[in-house]
Amino acid sequence: MSLLQTTPTTAPKQPKTKTREWADSLIFAVVAATLIRWATFEAYTIPSPSMENSLLVGDYLFVSKLHYGPITPQTPLQVPLTHQTIWGTSLKSYSELIQLPTYRLPGFSSIQRNDVVVFHVPHESQYPADLRTNYIKRCVAVAGDTLEIRNGQVYLNGKPGVTPPGLQTTYFMQVDNPNDEVLAALRAHGVVEYDQPGGVPQAVAAADGKFGYTISCTAATADYFRKQPYVKKMTVLEPQAQLFPDVADFRNSEAMSATPRNWSLDNYGPLPIPKKGQTIALSPANAAIYYKIVARYEHNAGITWQNGMIYQDGKMLTSYTVKQNYYMMMGDNRHNSEDSRFWGFVPEDHVVGKAVLIWLSLDPNADFWHKIRWSRLFNIIH
């Protein structure tokens, strides 16, 4: 007698409902958009005038992650763990923050001098780097350079650096009679004061009682106004502030350099920019330059600041080997930019990408019919 062996039949797969199809499509779209944003390009907008006139308030940019390579997330993962007692009679669930290693994928190029760069601001130490405010500035010096600013001119390794065409300086423009003619000339030359209604500069009185306007403009615009009969004087205004490295730990602690330099925004340095693999002899003369590198950016444990020197686990550090490259970033509106002159170096692992294209530009002070700055659309960023 022969036996027939039967195989169980599987029920036909149920077709997806319309709701499931929409949900799957939405999930795919979200994942794809997230990967594209993380690995290729991301859109940003300019909210402040620190990069004018190179970039204007209301410019919408594409920032390339491909140039320098996308970087893995730096936010610690919250991993659920299970703890069992020695008797096996009770279970307790809890979570732990685990910091995964940060890694940058290969990119098209390295960070170059004069690149316009988006990065996570270094001084918001209460957050992981990728949850901090994003800044956009120009890279004025790369790892291994020595930066100096003399009378507003950047010098790199003793030689004059490139001056961006949109570079702005802040002036007090003294006039005898603030009137509509002056305002019309300011408007015609693109001089804007964003915290005033309509962006119109307001006349103010200087300490000596003379009237005029505090304006930020390019050197060419300043030269134009110097030649006008209604302008009596153009005076460079440089804000007074305590800068890095006299302030060793911007907004985070009271750490101050043991050897103050008293640099200013227009006369700054010389300052060496740390390079990966460089071993530095530490002393009271330079410890403030490297304090945040050792204490924050390179995740060393047990670091403290005592009497103008860096200590680890109670022992004074006399040398340190740098683990990554660093950069100096400055705004093109040089007197109206909180940048590396205030808070120091930008670590390589804080760099997001290179600003490459203005795809839209909206004038916040214009009426509806003149809102779009047509001449700036699809401009390559230099």
UniProtKB/TrEMBL annotation:
- Keyword Transport attributed: no
Location of this chain's protein in the cell: Membrane
MF GO annotations: serine-type endopeptidase activity; signal peptidase activity
Q: Which InterPro entries match?
A: LexA/Signal_pep-like_sf, Pept_S26A_signal_pept_1, Pept_S26A_signal_pept_1_CS, Peptidase_S26
Record: active site: 50, 137
Topology within the bilayer: Single-pass type II membrane protein
Q: Which family does it belong to?
A: Belongs to the peptidase S26 family.
**NCBIfam families (alphabetical):** sigpep_I_bact
Top-level enzyme category: hydrolase
E.C. code? 3.4.21.89
| UniProt cross-references to Pfam families, sorted A to Z | Peptidase_S26
Domain of life (superkingdom) = Bacteria
The protein's UniProt keywords, in alphabetical order, are:
Hydrolase, Protease
One GO term (biological process): signal peptide processing
Catalysed reaction(s) here are: Cleavage of hydrophobic, N-terminal signal or leader sequences from secreted and periplasmic proteins
Under PROSITE patterns, the record lists:
SPASE_I_3
Tell me if rRNA processing is a UniProt keyword of this record. no
Q: What is this protein called?
A: Signal peptidase I
Which organism is this protein's natural source?
Hymenobacter montanus
The protein's predominant localisation is membrane
What does the entry list under GO cellular component? membrane
* Residue ranges of every copy of the Peptidase S26 domain listed in the record: 20-160, 318-359
